[in-house]
Each structure stands twice: as structure tokens, then as C-alpha cells.
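Q: Please design a sequence for this.
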């Protein structure tokens, strides 16, 4: 364990991926709780819901009908946050220096996709075997490859990846009209994380600009590589595997950790063990082992409090349009941010001090990792049947 005194005293921890700090207050776990409690989530959904906009063969909100798909299904979001075509905008030069300094805006274009994981309405990733999650990863890979810049350093790897994975017949995916900068793949699971439809799915937003979070990480990773001649996440993954204090699970290709700098109570990070810059660089074995890692995380989450555990997850990888330096500095990893703190009914809130000062957590990452390590075994729902 790290210095045992850190289990009992307030202290700050540094996040090298973003260059930020957070406050850790482990003694606060002893305080009584009389605040809001979330209702335990129940998994009583049918395999098919005729009113679901994402089930096979059903009509969506805007009138289009889904095909009767049997695997994954991808389509352009009917309510996209960004669009490929919109009215032109240029910041007006007013001659007012203060206005030009403080009132900045830039247009953003792009494409947003929805990707269903399965035709079965009642499943989650925790319910699916790695073999069933693998087609999701293959579809992510295809969509990333189809949006990659023709001059990208990973173009050859993308061609090889496309040749090694099966086609996806139920995917309304076409190359963008204009080259886009970044692709953010993410999943919001559960109503507590703002998910509006329980059918197992994720979203894929591609934008003409670089978003803040992956942008900050890329800057930090490039800086670390320039200063030390090594990769930040390579050093970090090696360190965690050696110490075993925050490791939840690992296989040959990936390590799952509760990171030293975690903000959310049971936050985890899936890190590639070798230098993989993006999905298109995975071998067939690595794609399957990534599916194993995702299944391990989501199943352990559900087992922790015996509930349909909510979270937001997202993949960070090389930008769609990047030079050699940016691509080389990138290191594939996946974040999971779950809100539950003490039980299926008590969640963590980022309010007050977290909003006004800096993030704060109570349970330490070491304690969280130990609890998640103890949640292996069959999915609790299976044992109830």
C-alpha cells in the first residue's frame, strides 16, 4: 500500500493526464448520510419492446425505421449535437480589443452516430460475453477507420484492420463530407447518467474541433514524452502492474486500474499495455482481450452493489486528423466514471467544493480497487435465476 497515513489524512493527488489536482478525504466515509438516495435499479425489461426507438424493425422518433438487425446497428443520430452542414459563421472584427479577447466563438461541424450493442432490449455489456462484445469493438474500428484522414500516420494500419474484421451490414456509416478532427466514443448507462433509452447502445460524436478532455490529455502525454523520452501511460501501466495496489484485473494486452488520481468513487481506467494509438492498431487477439476487459469492468460494477450499475465511459485515442507527433504521443485507453458511492442507492455528487474549487473524493482508489477485485465471479443476476 502507499504510505498508510494517506488512508487517514486529507491530501491532494496529482493527475498527470490532465495536469490537475484533486482533494482526497478518506475520513469522510464515516459520516452519516441523510441526503438523496437513488432507487435501486431493476432489470425487468423485455427482450423486445415495441415502443423502443432502438429495437429491430421499430420506427424511430423522426419516422425512419430500423432494419431487423441481428448484431450491431449504427445510424446517424436523429438529434445530432453537431451536423455536417450549417450556416457559415465568422467572428466579426469590431475593433473592440476587449470584445475580441473575451467574446470568442468558433463553428463546429461533424457527425453523430448511435450504435446499438445488441438487438436484445434487456441486455447490458455486463450481461454479454466477450464474444458478444467483440462485434461492438469491430464496428467502432470500422467507423473510426472510415473517418480517418487520408494523410494520417495510421492509414496503413486502418486498411489492415478493415481487412481483418467482418463487414457490418446494418451500419448507416459513410465517410464525412469534410475531414473531421476527433472521434469521441462514449456510453451513458442508466438514468442516473442521463441515458434516455435503456436499449444497450453508445454514441459516437465526430467533430471538426478537438474536445477539451482528450485535448488536455494529448498535451500532457506529448509533454511527458518530450521530457522523458517515454510514454506517460506506458510508464504508469508498468508501475501499477508492479505495485498491484490499484489493479482490478489484467490480461496479456490490458490492465484495469482504479487510477491514483480517480475522482469518482469506483472510477477505472483500461490501459493498453503496448503502444497502441487507436482501435485500428489492435490485433485480433487484442480486440478480443479488450472485449474481455470491458466485460470484467461492467460485470464487477453490477456485482459490487447487486444493481444495474450506472456509469459514463469513453475511449481516448489518436485524433482522426493528426500529424506524426500527435499520433505518436497518443496511447489508447478507456475511462469509466460511475457515480455510486456507498450502495445502490447513494451516489457521489460533484457539487459545492468540487464545482467551486477542485474535485474531491472520500474512498481511496486503493480501497475501491480492493472492493472491485472482490467482485469477480458470475454476474449476480444469473445466480438469482
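A: Design:
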Amino acid at each position: 500500500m502507499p504510505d498508510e497515513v494517506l488512508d487517514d489524512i486529507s491530501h491532494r493527488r496529482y493527475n498527470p493526464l490532465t495536469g490537475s489536482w484533486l482533494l482526497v478525504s478518506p475520513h469522510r466515509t464515516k459520516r452519516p448520510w441523510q441526503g438523496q438516495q437513488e432507487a435501486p435499479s431493476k432489470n425487468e425489461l423485455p427482450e423486445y419492446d415495441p415502443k423502443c426507438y432502438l429495437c429491430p424493425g421499430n420506427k424511430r422518433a423522426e419516422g425512419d425505421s430500423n432494419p431487423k438487425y441481428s448484431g450491431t446497428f449504427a445510424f446517424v443520430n436523429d438529434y445530432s449535437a453537431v451536423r455536417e452542414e450549417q450556416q457559415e459563421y465568422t467572428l466579426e472584427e469590431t475593433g473592440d480589443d476587449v470584445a475580441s479577447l473575451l467574446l470568442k466563438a468558433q463553428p463546429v461541424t461533424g457527425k453523430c452516430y448511435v450504435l446499438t450493442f445488441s438487438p436484445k432490449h434487456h441486455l447490458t455489456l455486463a450481461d454479454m460475453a466477450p464474444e458478444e462484445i467483440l462485434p461492438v469493438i469491430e464496428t467502432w474500428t470500422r467507423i473510426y477507420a472510415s473517418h480517418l484522414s487520408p494523410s494520417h500516420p495510421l492509414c496503413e494500419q486502418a486498411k489492415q484492420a478493415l481487412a481483418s474484421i467482418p463487414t457490418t451490414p446494418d451500419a448507416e456509416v459513410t465517410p464525412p463530407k469534410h475531414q473531421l478532427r476527433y472521434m469521441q466514443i462514449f456510453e451513458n448507462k442508466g438514468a442516473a447518467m442521463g441515458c434516455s433509452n435503456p436499449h444497450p447502445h453508445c454514441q459516437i460524436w465526430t467533430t471538426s474541433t478537438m474536445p477539451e478532455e482528450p485535448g488536455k490529455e494529448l498535451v500532457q502525454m506529448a509533454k511527458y514524452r518530450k521530457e522523458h523520452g517515454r510514454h506517460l501511460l506506458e510508464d504508469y501501466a508498468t508501475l501499477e502492474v508492479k505495485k498491484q495496489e490499484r489493479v482490478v484485473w489484467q490480461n496479456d494486452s490490458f490492465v484495469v486500474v482504479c487510477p491514483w488520481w480517480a475522482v469518482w468513487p469506483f472510477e477505472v481506467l483500461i490501459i493498453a499495455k503496448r503502444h497502441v494509438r487507436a482501435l485500428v492498431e489492435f490485433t485480433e487477439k487484442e480486440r478480443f482481450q479488450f472485449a474481455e476487459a470491458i466485460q470484467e469492468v461492467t460485470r464487477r460494477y453490477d456485482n459490487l452493489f447487486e444493481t444495474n450499475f450506472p456509469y459514463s465511459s469513453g475511449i481516448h485515442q489518436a485524433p482522426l486528423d493528426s500529424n506524426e507527433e500527435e499520433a505518436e504521443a497518443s496511447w489508447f485507453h478507456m475511462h469509466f466514471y460511475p457515480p455510486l458511492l456507498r450502495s445502490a442507492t447513494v451516489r457521489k455528487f460533484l457539487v459545492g467544493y468540487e464545482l467551486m474549487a477542485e474535485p474531491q473524493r472520500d474512498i481511496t482508489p486503493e480501497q475501491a480497487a480492493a472492493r472491485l477485485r472482490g467482485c469477480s465471479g458470475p454476474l449476480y443476476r444469473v445466480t438469482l435465476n
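Q: Thanks. Anything notable?
A: The longest strand covers residues 182-189. The chain has one domain: 41-82+106-378.
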